[in-house]
Write a structure and sequence with these properties.
The complex is a heterodimer of chains A (815) and B (233). With 815 residues, chain A is an alpha+beta fold. Chain A has four domains: 215 residues, no CATH class; 167 residues, no CATH class; 215 residues, no CATH class; 181 residues, no CATH class. Chain A contains 24 helices and 22 strands. Chain A is elongated. About 1% of the residues of chain A have low confidence. With 233 residues, chain B is of the alpha/beta class. In chain B, the strands form two sheets. Chain B has a six-stranded mixed sheet, with helices on both faces. In chain B, a hairpin with a 2-residue loop joins strand 1 and strand 2. Chain B is globular and about 50 Å long. The two termini of chain B are 31 Å apart. The mean pLDDT of chain B is 88. The chains are: A alpha+beta (815), B alpha/beta (233). At the A-B interface, helix 14, helix 20 and helix 24 of A face helix 2 and helix 3 of B.
Chain lengths: 815, 233
Amino acid sequence: MSLLRLRWMWRDARRRWLQIVGISFTLAIGIGLFAGLSSVTEWRLLAIDKSFDVTKMYDLRATVTGGSDVPAGSLARIASDIDGIAEFNERLVFDSQVDATLDGEELLVHGRIVGMDLSASGSLVNDVYLLEGDELPSSRTATPQVLIDKNFAAFWGLPTNGHITVGGDVEVNYVGHAVSPEYFLIVEGNGSLGKSNLAVLFAPLEVAQDISGRRGAVNDLVLTLEPGADIEEVRQQLVDAAASLDGALLSVITRDETPSYTGLIGAPETQQGIYDVMSLLLFVGAAFATLNFAARMVEAQRREIGASMAIGEHLRSIAIRPLLMGLQIGILGMILGVVVGYAISLQTVSVVQNIERLPIFEQPFQWAIYAQALAIGFAVPILAVFWPVFRAVRVRPVDAIRSGHLASRGGSLSPVISRIPLPGRSLERMPFRNLMRAPRRTFLTLLTFTMSLAIMFSMLGLASTFTTTFDEGSKELLGDEPDRFTVQFDSLYPVEGPQVQDVVTNPKVRLAETSLVLGASVGAATPDEGAEPTRLDLAVRFVDFGSAVWTPTATQGTLRAGEPGIVLADKAARDFGVEVGDEVMVTHPALVDGAFTYSTRTMPVTAIHPHPLRLNAYIDLTQAATWGFGGLANTVTGAPAEGSSLNDVKRALFGSGKGVALVQGLDDSFRSVEDSLAQSQGVFLITRIFVIFLVMLIAFNTANINVDERRRDHATMFAYGIPVRRVIANLSMEGLLMGVVAVVLGGLFGYALLLWMALFLMPTAVPDVGMIVSVRWWEMAASFIAALAAIALAPMFPGRKLKKMFIPGQLRMME
Amino acid sequence: MIDLEGVTKHYEVGPVLVTALAGIDLHVDAGEFVVVLGASGSGKTTTLNIIGALDTPSSGKVTVGGRDLLASSRGELFALRRETVSFIFQSFNLFPGLTATENVEFGMDVSGRKGAGSPAELLDSVGLGHRLGHFPHELSGGEQQRVAIARALATGNPVLLADEPTGELDFKTGAQILELLAEQANQDRAVLVVTHNREISRMADRVVEMSSGQIISDGPPEGGKTPLSELRW
């Protein structure tokens, strides 16, 4: 390349640096969003896999049902007798209330103590990973020492060391913050518990036994399998072996049925579907914008290209200047794209880390994904300059260098447009005419605005859909009493017994009602032919259908007090494919002669309730007797007495030490599901910020290029005495017209996108929740008005160029 | 109508100071058809730009329509262009997004005057009654220039400034355009036409010849005013 061409290129770059940077940044946001969001799953899964490996997550977990326990060693004996088990560990896991009050701020929450054998310098299965503080001693100390779960500790800002009270009167020291694979993600199946109100304490087995007062007892077994072992066979053997446990039943779940594991493993891939759609649309939008802007910049050089042709320059030499410009945009776009992508990744990491407390969190640079995005990003501006160069060199040189009227061409829609009557004065019509004069570029600009606004709409819509879904769920649970709470016992107790009566008659409690919550497997009794029958583990709540305090709302069917029948959530009924009047098959625990067993029965669906969580099912309390649980309860619901708060109730029940495991607001656990969605919300927020940037950049570039292209028109307007502000107003109006169309199209497209994400993608990411699609119009309107304002105000930036224009110079311009 | 007294204009081109106008005096009355003649670089277009308030002189005094341009604010200069002077350009400078009618309406809208007739009447008066809804790119060069003249006339402004209005046109079309401009002077407008074409100057009432930024002659055309039919270029 000659020195002349290099100098020429340098001057081009200096003259157009603002446009080149602006276009490169537009491209960079597309590249960055695509690369940053597309790679989320890659590094999340890597971190998740490593974290589960390092903590030796179990393959199977067997739990003694019904809140009972067995002598230590009996579960180990069962495991020893089964082939295919590699390692196992007996545990004592129990719930209790925890008082973690710190600096006078009362913190009474649900606690879970996980006691395990730590004699082999840690647990052989489901180890505890220390993040901060000291290791636990493997056995008893004078004051019990435990580790506290990092999720809870981080949420409440607990120090590394401190002391807490468990079960009303046991003082415990915690010596560090730790995580364990079951609690990497605090979301549980049946009415989950969030990180804010579940304090998991990890302790040596003996310490846990001491705290619970169950010396020598265990109730849980975690185990890993040898390679090639049949998991279902081992599972069945464990269930069968429970016969040796003197009336106790073993409930066995696999790793894949553990909420923390499925939540972590499943979420990235299902959420990735949403990220992929968003990032791809934005990348395409940014690429089209780049294509449009770069092409317009080359078109502005049409006459120079013609002049070069006229003096016989080789076509490849002619093409080199525009191509170099494309190259500059491509290279700068790639560099900025990596920066933007990395910034997005860093922000995403911090969002993810807040939700998932993984011991290992690596974020290797995703070369493959970045290479893909960068290659496309690099190709776009190069391709963008090819077309106008190709068009320019195809015309006869004489046409290319011709100035004046013979050179000017109108858009192909001109004949149509001239027949469209427009109101207003000529100046007011000008913005519309200008848009219609170049339909291709108008379409491309419109397309990029529309895509950006559609993404913004769908993300705002998803956020309000989440909020509405959970608000409606809370409303359904709380009824007219927003302070209602639930007291959960650590086992089943007679309703007339002291444990339950102490709560029911407590002066801090009013509107007390006993109920029974049991897990049951439910599915359609006669599934549709050919369809895979859906069976779900539901939380069946026996409540009084005749209660004046609260009953579930029946959106279909009726609640029948004293009659058999089950009330299903709308989402569950849809998933089962059943309606009111159909029958479902329920496999449930039953109490026969004092021993637990499983029983299967068909039940009619008597009503459908609107709660979005499909796991909630209701049966009239009178029917508990048919399952063998007549006169028993494990839950009391109520409201604080006049002048009392929920904390007063917690305090009053905390010291009772009579089987109270948990006191919390009725919708607290349900609300914790919302936590699991916070991650997506965080990523949406980051994306939204970049979308706003993208819209502003496109608006800025459009205005800037428009001012350059129309400098002769503007000079003529100035020659006729039109003030600069009026010219800027016209440019703004042009942007506004396009913005309004983009808002309408973006709104429609965004709503379709929202429906698709909420009704088709989200059910795979959060299958337990029936989303209530909702759009907060005021929020949407505010965002769109902000976007419109950005588009309309963008011409202010090149306004300085207009003010400083040397009018005669532009008027005599021949092009 | 137009008064220039001792007007100079200097440009700095790098380290070189270029004198475009070297102290010119010019007076043009309403109803005069004046041709400013000169070779390229003689200062004729600079003179036109200064009269039209598109450019400011380095020194001297410029009065247009009774307004002292050097004492006028930026806003007042914009107002002068809206209300007093109208331009016709060599390359027409029509708005490509507006039809012929709308381009003419534009002139009417900026001045706010309605007395000049409707856009259709004005276009009809320049022989374009049949091209009302056409866009500039659908018109020939002569037609575009006639639209430009109609636009200038639509303002109703008393001063008409034309910079090489026939520069892009063939003889026949150029002659038609000059005829149109000459008619405007008969309607009590001051019409200044800048050209390098000596033949055109023969049809003017008065010819101001410039060279190196100075007026070297000012008076009726050599050999007297010549009818358009006798012009050749």
